[in-house]
Structure formats: C-alpha cells, structure tokens
C-alpha cells in the first residue's frame, strides 16, 4: 500500500535543509527588510522549489546544469517547468536583454546629460570587476571565463551579470546571480566604510547645489542614440545590452511612444519574477554547496570595495583639474545599483553637512554605471568568448 | 576564503600575462569608450545651447 504513496521526507538531505534556510533568509530580507524584494522573494521561493526532493520542478544533468527537454518531457516527468523557463528564457539570453529594455524605459539620464563627466565616473567604478577577475583567476580556483563572471558582480548590475554568465560560465549562474543581487541589496552596508576611508572631511564637505540643469527634450533624445552608436561601434559585443537599454530609454524620452514605454516597464516586472524564480531554481544543494561558492561570496565583497574606490578616486583625480570641485562621494555611486548607491552618497554627504543634497549629482554616475557595466560585459565577452 | 584557497588544488594553468592583459586593456577600453561618449554628449549639449542662443 505504501508503494502507492511517495513522501519526500526520507530523501531530504542536510544540504537541502540549509538551502531552504537560505531561501527563508532571502524571503525575510525581501519582505521584512524590503531589500530588493522584487528579486529576493522569487529567488528565495525558487530555492524552496528545487530543494524539496522528488518534486522535480527543475532537474539537472550530472554536470549540474538544468536538463533540457520540451513539454513532452515535462509530461513524462523527466524535466520540470523551471527547466523550460531556463532554456527558453535564460539560455537564449532573451530574459536579461528584455529586462534591460524595461530598465531603459524607466531610466532618466538627465543627471548624466547635465554633467557628461559622470560617464567617466561610471567607467572608473568598474575597477572592482577587473580587480576581482584578477584575484579569482590568479587564485587558480577558477577558469578565466569563470573569473570574468565573478568579476562582473562588481558592476552591481543584474542583467549584464546574467548575460555574461550564461555565455561564459552557465554552471555558475545560480551562485553568481544570487550573490550579485544580494550584495546589491547590501550596498548601504558595504559602501559607507570605503567612502569614509577614502574621502577626507574637507572633501566630504564640498557643497553642491541641490538642483541640476534640466536637460532639453533634444538632449534626452540624442543621448540614447549617441551612446548606442558609439558603444556598438567600439565594443560590438555590448550592442545587445546597450542597444536594448537605449531603445527602451528612447521610447521613454521621445514623447510619442508613452504606451510602448509603459508596456516595457510592465514587461520588466513579468520578466523579473521569471528571472528570480529561475535563478533560485539553479541553487539545489548539490550544485550550490561547493567551496567555490563561498569564495565567490568573498570575492564579490572585494569587487564592491574596489568599484566604490575606483569611482571615488576618479572624482578626486578630476578635481585636480577643476576650479569648481566635485564632491568625491558621488563617485561611489558609479557602481550601478540604481538608485541605492546614489542614496548612499546622499546619506554620507549629509552626515557631514545636512544641507548638502548630493542625490541628483550622484544619479549621474549611477546611471552611467549601468552603461559601464554593459560595456564591460561586452568587452569581456569579446575577449573571452 | 583564504583557507579554502590554501586547501584547493587547482587544475588550471594560470596565464598571468593574459589575465593582466585582459584586466588592463578591458578597464582601459571601458574608460576610453565612455570618455568618447561623454565628450560627444558635451559637444552636442554645447551645439544645442548655441543654436538656442542664436535663435
């Protein structure tokens, strides 16, 4: 009689229990602490789904990659529904690209246009990507492709991280994406010590007007076009990412495609939960619990620290040539993590001078960071693929 | 993390030259591209302002 009924309890391992606990923590951080809830909640639930034995919501090959099949295999119980989402959404790279389209429809590049040098701060804040890439590769624990995917966590932007990892090291997609999104939520904890260490009291007091110049409609329309043409010409591999983001932004700023822009942001929401649950599905205990995952967690901290430092130091360098100095704290916002990093800059500035409103100024490098990370993803893909 | 690194026996040959080349060139290209874009944005802003003034 008991042969008719199969319980998963006997097959649950200690690893599964720990993973379910991690899922609970992510859901707690998302719901109770409101840290990146749109991602951490689906990722947490995805972890539940694949760590309950026999459920078969996602099945894996012996190499730890999701098994492939069609609806027929789902009906036969050979693969799960998350396998299909992974293959048609992530493996084809369509989900991260469409998310970037949606992100573009929500971005306002006015602060970047008002101060074009912000783009340079967004570029220099990619230092962490290359620093952690070097450390990861020279440690001998990771191949050069894996190291590049670990490095891109330092860009602190989800879609480029997913895009690059699916291409170069798909077996690491689960841990890398989880670490990337969790650390983005931890920007308010990771960045302030670096800012305090690198900026003198005098620098932190540099006052910046609360208002910035308002960009005209023509400037707003020209921006995505110029960025895409130059980026695609100089770094062709970044064209899908930058192209999607800039296309989305053009829909927003053109003034005549509002409906499409709204559809883009709605599409973004749909895709984000598919991405989240699929990333969670890539974290069964047998794949996640390796010493390398712990090292990835450590390297991501290094990436964030270097990226923050890169942004701050570049502002300090530029200040050497400027009459009207820029507060170096806004350089820290060059690590994408929109708008969290800009808020951190605002808070840190106001700790020293409560009348100093840095938010709008910090949003410039913050937006530029998203372009910078896409460029870096394209550069690494071009060099390593 | 350091402990894991000590215990880990890597099976990959490390190409130091390539690693430094990728990180140096990658970082440099990234900055260069964004400098070019920022100069073009600045020039276009300038051109728009001048056209407005002349009008």
Q: What would you note in describing this structure?
A:
The complex is a heterodimer of chains A (385) and B (55). Chain A has 385 residues and is mainly α. Chain A has a domain at 94-263 and 287-384. Chain A contains 20 helices and no strands. In chain A, helix 9 (144-151) runs antiparallel to helix 10 (158-168). The longest helix of chain A is centred in the last third of the chain and has 29 residues, at 291-319. The radius of gyration of chain A is 21 Å and the shape is globular. Chain A starts with 13 loop residues before the first helix and ends with a helix. The model of chain A has no long low-confidence stretch (mean pLDDT 90). Chain B is mainly alpha-helical. Chain B has a domain at 17-54. Chain B has two helices and no strands. Chain B has helices spanning 2-7, 16-54. Chain B is rod-shaped and about 70 Å long. Chain B starts with a helix and ends with a helix. The model of chain B has no long low-confidence stretch (mean pLDDT 86). The chains are: A mainly alpha (385), B mainly alpha (55). At the A-B interface, helix 7, helix 8, helix 9, helix 14 and helix 18 of A face helix 1 and helix 2 of B.
In short:
The complex is a heterodimer of chains A (385) and B (55). Chain A has helices at residues 14-31, 37-51, 71-75, 81-91, 94-106, 110-114, 118-124, 127-138, 144-151, 158-168, 173-185, 187-198, 201-204, 217-234, 239-253, 258-281, 285-288, 291-319, 340-352, 359-384.
């Amino acid at each position: 009689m008991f042969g008719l009924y199969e319980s998963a309890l006997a097959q649950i391992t200690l690893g599964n229990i720990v993973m379910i606990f991690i899922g609970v923590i992510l859901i707690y951080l998302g719901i109770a602490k409101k840290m990146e809830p749109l991602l951490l909640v689906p990722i947490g639930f995805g972890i539940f789904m694949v760590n309950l034995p026999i459920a078969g919501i996602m099945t894996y090959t012996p190499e730890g990659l999701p098994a492939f099949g069609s609806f027929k295999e789902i009906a036969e119980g050979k693969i799960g529904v998350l396998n299909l989402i992974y293959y048609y959404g992530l493996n084809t790279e369509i989900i991260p690209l469409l998310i970037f389209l949606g992100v573009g429809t929500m971005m306002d590049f006015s602060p970047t246009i008002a101060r074009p040098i912000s783009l340079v701060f967004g570029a220099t804040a990619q230092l962490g990507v290359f620093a952690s890439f070097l450390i990861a590769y020279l440690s001998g624990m990771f191949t050069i492709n894996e190291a590049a995917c670990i490095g891109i966590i330092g860009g602190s932007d989800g879609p480029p991280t997913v895009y690059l990892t699916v291409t170069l090291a798909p077996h690491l997609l689960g841990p890398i994406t989880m670490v990337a999104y969790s650390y983005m939520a931890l920007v308010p904890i990771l960045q302030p010590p670096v800012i305090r260490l690198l900026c003198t009291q005098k620098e932190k007091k540099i006052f910046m007007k609360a208002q910035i110049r308002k960009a005209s409609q023509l400037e707003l329309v020209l921006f995505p076009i110029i960025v895409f043409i130059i980026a695609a010409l100089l770094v062709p591999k970044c064209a899908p990412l930058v192209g999607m983001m800039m296309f989305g932004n053009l829909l927003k700023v053109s003034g005549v495609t509002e409906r499409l822009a709204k559809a883009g942001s709605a599409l973004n929401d749909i895709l984000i939960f598919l991405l989240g649950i699929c990333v969670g599905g890539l974290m069964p205990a047998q794949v996640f619990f390796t010493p390398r995952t712990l090292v990835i967690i450590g390297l991501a901290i290094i990436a964030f620290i270097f990226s923050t430092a890169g942004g701050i130091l570049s502002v300090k360098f530029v200040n050497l040539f400027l009459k009207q100095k820029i507060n170096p704290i806004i350089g820290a916002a060059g690590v994408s993590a929109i708008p969290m990093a800009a808020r951190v800059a605002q808070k840190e500035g106001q700790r020293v001078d409560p009348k100093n409103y840095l938010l709008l100024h910090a949003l410039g490098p913050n937006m530029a960071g998203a372009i910078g990370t896409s460029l870096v993803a394209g550069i690494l893909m071009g060099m390593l693929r | 993390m350091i402990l894991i690194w000590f215990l880990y026996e890597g099976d990959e040959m490390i190409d130091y030259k390539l690693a430094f080349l990728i990180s140096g060139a990658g970082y440099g290209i990234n900055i260069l591209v964004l400098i070019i874009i920022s100069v073009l944005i600045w020039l276009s802003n300038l051109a728009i302002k001048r056209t407005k003034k002349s009008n």
